[in-house]
Amino acid sequence: MNLFSRQMALGVLLAGSMAAGFAHAAGQDANLARLVQQRVEQPDVLETKSSAVSVQVQDGNVQLSGWLQHANDYQKVHAIVAAVPGVKTVSSTFKSWASTQHP
């Protein structure tokens, strides 16, 4: 095998390894997104079904978006999501139906 063939073989091997790593990371992110979504949808998290939260995860970083019933629900959601194992960071772009805060 000449030098060029060896370099090509190494390149193919590295590309395959990187693709497998990306697929594994994507699978982990998908699992984490499911865990976070399940936790947010628990009855004790948000007061009403008027809330709708979408979850996206990339490399363990969670992005939340959607509608919340009350303006201060985001604090509760952030705390609950941050406690899920595997979550590195939590950010959000929520809108709320009510501008008033609830107790």
From TrEMBL:
BON domain sequence ranges: 28-98
Transmembrane segments: none
Keyword entries, A-Z: Signal
Secretion signal span: 1-25
The protein, known as: BON domain-containing protein
Protein's organism: Hydrogenophaga crassostreae
Superkingdom to which the source organism belongs: Bacteria
